[in-house]
Predict the structure.
Amino acid sequence: VARLILKGSAVPFNDCRYDFSMRPAKNEETNRRLNKHVWPECEFTAAQWLKDKPKTPFQALPLLEGVPGVKGPICQSRAITRHCARIAGIDGETDTDKLLVDMFAYLAYEFLERVWGKYSVLIGMHGGSMKAEKRWERVDAIPDLMRSEAEDYLTRLEALHVSHFGQGSKFIAGNNLSFADYYWLVTHDYMCHELG
């Protein structure tokens, strides 16, 4: 989300990425599915990440470095996203706006977090394993398992949105673009492409 905010707001930054896709994969079905996606250029490999990982505060990504006035790296994705939103001027104008933007942004984040936590065990990715037996059969079953949960969540989201902004609001958190719209763009993309 932070990259989308910076790119969408024309804020210059160095976009350093690691390629974790392990292409070509050893599994034929995994290769077929990976090849359906357009992958961004990555400057670093997964092997390079294994070397760099111990040098990071929590051995995890993302990292934001070189923030004026900050001595070390920033290493929490929501803090990074919130900072990028402030730089881009899309974090809300008033305190009330900021509160509503935060709420709608983190509703999207928490939906993905909950879904990923719940279903990653089912598909066999717990413990970092992508090699679980019959993994793709379980992945393909997720849209049917998720449909009612996603529909319920979106119905509740819409009701909450309407209670705050009425009908016809242009954006998720009011009449102005905010970083909540970027979170929901990513969530919507996940729902459409991964959940059917």
Summary: The chain has a mean pLDDT of 87. The radius of gyration is 19 Å. The longest helix spans residues 135-165. The CA atoms of residues 62 and 77 lie 6 Å apart.
